[in-house]
Write a structure and sequence with these properties.
Layout lengths: L3 E6 L2 E7 L3 H11 L3 E8 L3 E5 L9 E5 L3 E5 L3 E5 L3 E11 L4 H8 L4 E6 L2
Antiparallel strand pairs: 1-2, 1-9, 2-8, 3-4, 3-9, 4-7, 5-8, 6-7, 6-8
Amino acid sequence: MTRTISIEANGRTMTAELADNSSADALAEMLREGPIKVRMNDYGNMEKVGSLGRRLPTNDRRMDTDAGDVILYQGSYLVICYDRNSWSLTGLGRIKDVGKDGLRSILGDGDVTVTLSLP
């Protein structure tokens, strides 16, 4: 099973290491069919959120997120955190080698379309 995915936003490609759960496995399986584009909106000045267009299994638990966390919310929403939050969520993975300021710069202000793919 692939343990990393690529996330492209605004011409920049980031690598995320996937979590060890059925949700991340289902996302990797979905990406085997091809790349997925997700239109994301700012939420709460801490994250970008967009619909995956498909429901994945959830493994919700109370967690504290930080910049770089890739989250599944309500089974069908992709979340990329660029600040801290605390909620019952499913972790999908973590973006490597990009900090809070770098993520904010890559994701930009307002809406952004990200493309998820296998490396």
